[in-house]
Every structure is written in structure tokens, then in C-alpha cells.
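Methods: holo model generation. Sequences were used as deposited, without trimming of termini or removal of tags, and paired with ligand SMILES retrieved from the corresponding compound records. Each pair was processed once, and we did not select among multiple samples. The sequence and flavin-adenine dinucleotide SMILES for this entry were:
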Amino acid sequence: MSDFSLELNDDQITLRDWLHGFALNEMRPIAAEWDEREETPWPFIEEAARIGVYGLDFLMSNFADKTGLSTMIALEELAWGDAGLCMALMGTTLGVAAIVANGTPEQQMEWVPQCFGAPGDLKLAAFGVSEPDAGSDVSSLRTRAIYDEKTDEWVLNGTKTWITNGGIANVHVIVASVDPSLGSRGQASFIVPEGTPGLRMGQKFKKMGIRASHTAEVILEDCRVPGRCLLGGKEKLDEKLARVREGKKASSQAAMATFEATRPAVGAQALGIARAAYEYALDYAKERQQFGRAIIENQAIAFKLADMKTSIDAARLLVWRASWMAANRKPFTAGEGSMSKLFAGETAVKVTEEAIQILGGYGYVRDYPVERWHRDSKIYTIFEGTSEIQRLIIARAISGVQIR
Ligand SMILES: Cc1cc2nc3c(=O)[nH]c(=O)nc-3n(C[C@H](O)[C@H](O)[C@H](O)COP(=O)(O)OP(=O)(O)OC[C@H]3O[C@@H](n4cnc5c(N)ncnc54)[C@H](O)[C@@H]3O)c2cc1C
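and the model returned the structure below.
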């Protein structure tokens, strides 16, 4: 048993400092432009791939850290640079996480590299769960997957909405119902490879924040994918469905398995935005003079900053704990993954709002980055499970009661 320590090791410090430089020099200067353009920032993703921030190696080397902290440190720095640009890199990771959580080792070997591509030949992935009538209630998905035995193909029909990289991704991972009578236990995840007829982009959404990240509907119309695109394979699916039909507990649900793994990582991004706003507001409060003194000399302002910093540090500890638990295969018995995402997301919204207050009128205009950070922060209480859903998960975990 090693001694307890919260000090980062040399590798983690090197990673943090490298990404901080990247965030400062490559992300901050272009953040406002891509927020306004509201398009996928291809040149930026290309640069990230070239230096090794976008790609399988980056993911694997961070994932190999058994403390679980490297990925969290990396994401905090990238989101500190800009959350929209960070999501433009991380959208792919949602698809990858779904493949890793549900795919066989062979499927992972085949598809994960195709999610990233390589510099000069970039690829993107997307993970499609949400539907117009099934957001928080993932059990009510209407997208159907029907097996065609004659051709060994699955035929997908339905509409997915709010999908990061939806319709522009090279690899789509789509969660669909194979037996609607079984709710979320009757669902499976499917790879839809690049160029598959029957998958197309619907509406592209105009968003409040993280606008450098593409969000759109994905329409599936008689979209046929080969049998080998069912993640986990047919045998495993048939066994699972048989167990559920017999009333036995099935292994985890397809979508839920992915979200459990990705929640601390979402929290880490929220943390990065919060820290950006806090640091900016702290500097500003020391500089800005009113009534002949720096505004930080007023307790009303200084206490805001004290609360902001305290919340940020508390959020980081929750994120790091959840990530350490996941990396060390400690089960989340009290919804620790949800706690980290809930607290970090709400902290980001509060801290960025307080930062606007500290900047006054300057906080409200686009000449300063703080209003953008506030707009960016809000998504962290909505996607990958809203704050209410995180509270539901935590409340159920701590009580054992099926709270509604
Ligand atoms: C920018 C963006 C990117 C996204 N990316 C993806 C993606 O890549 N893939 C994907 O699959 N999805 C994605 N989503 C979808 C996102 O996960 C959903 O928006 C989210 O799960 C909420 O679903 P909903 O919007 O339908 O809200 P609803 O589920 O309709 O919720 C509306 C409100 O009701 C509350 N509520 C619902 N049920 C309960 C309950 N039981 N108890 C208490 N309160 C409740 C919610 O908390 C919320 O406040 C994205 C969304 C956005 C905006």
C-alpha cells in the first residue's frame, strides 16, 4: 500500500505544462473566432493531431496512468484553453468510449483507429443515443434495429438528436432498440461505418455555447450495417436478451456503460472553464480601480473569489476521486461519477456567472472572454445526464430506493 499523496508525479506535471502551453498559445487566440463561426475547426483539429493531442496514442497514454488522473489533468487544461475547441477534439472520444465499453477486443482493434484517422486524413466519431422523445429517459428510445438473417445485416431506422459530430462523423455509434418491450435492457450499440447508405445529417443546431463543436440530428432510414457491426456480437446479445426475458438481471445497459465511464471526464472539462473564469476574474479584481482602490479590496468581491476557488478545488477533488476509482476498478457505490459531473458542472455555471459580476459591464460583452465561458459552461449541467438525473443516480445509490 503506497503512502497517500495528492502530489502529481513528474509525468503528470509534464503533461499538464505541455497542454497548458498548447491551450494558451493555440486555443485561446482562436477561441472567439470559432465561437462566432460556429463550425468544426478543422485546422485546429489538424494541428492537435499533428502534435499528438488528437489521436489514439494520446488517449492510450493517458488511459495507461493507473492513478486515473492524467486524462482529467489533460481535459482540465484543454477546456481552460476553450471548451468549444476541446469538445471538437473530445466528441470523437464519446464514440470511442462506446466502442471500448461495449465492443469485443477485435471490434475495438478494428474501429477505434478509424475514429481518429491520422494527420492529413482526420476522422471523427459520434455517439448517438438521444432522440427527440427520449433524452433523460433513455429507456424509451424509438430507433429500431431489426436483424435480417438472410443477409446477416442489421437494419436501423429512427432519428437521433443533439449528436456531437452527428452526420459529419466517419464512424457513428448508434444505440437502438432490438426489443422495445424490454426498455433499456433491450437495447444494443451498432457501428455505422463511413459512407453507409441510409444515414444522413438532419438539422444542425445553433447553440448558446461550445459553438466550435458540431451538434446535429442524425436520421437513419433503412440503414443496413453488417452483422459484425453489432458491438459485443450477436451471441452475447442473444444471451443477454434471454436472461432479461427470464427475469434475471442483465449486464449493464449499453448507453449507461458509456456514460458511467465518461462522467468524470465531463466534470474535468467543466472544471477547466471554471478555473479560466476564476483566474481571469482574480486578475481583473486586482487591477480594476473604483472609489480609489482595487475592487478586490472590497470583501463583497474578495469573498466571491474565495468561494469560487473553494468550489473549484472541491470539484477537482471529486473529479480526481471518481477517476481514480474508475482506473482502479472500484465500483461507484454512491454515484461518485455522477457526483463529480454534477458538482463540477454546477460549479462552472456559478463561477462563470460570478466572474461576469466581477467584471461588471466588461463581463457582459464579447470583447472579453468571460461571457463566452458562461455560455460554454451551461451545457455541463445538461449533456451526459442533466444535473437532475445525476442527483437521481446519487440518491438511488445512497438510499437503495427507486426514487423518481
Ligand atoms: C450540445 C449538446 C451536445 C450533445 N451531445 C450528445 C451526443 O453526442 N450524444 C447523445 O446521445 N446526446 C447528446 N446530447 C443530448 C443530451 O444528453 C440531452 O440533451 C440530455 O440527456 C437531456 O435530454 P433532453 O434534452 O431530452 O431533456 P429532457 O430529458 O426532456 O429533460 C428536460 C428537463 O426535465 C428534467 N427531467 C427529466 N426527467 C427527470 C426526472 N426523472 N426527474 C427530474 N427531472 C427530470 C431534466 O433534468 C431537464 O431539466 C447533447 C446535447 C447537447 C445540448
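The mean pLDDT is 95.
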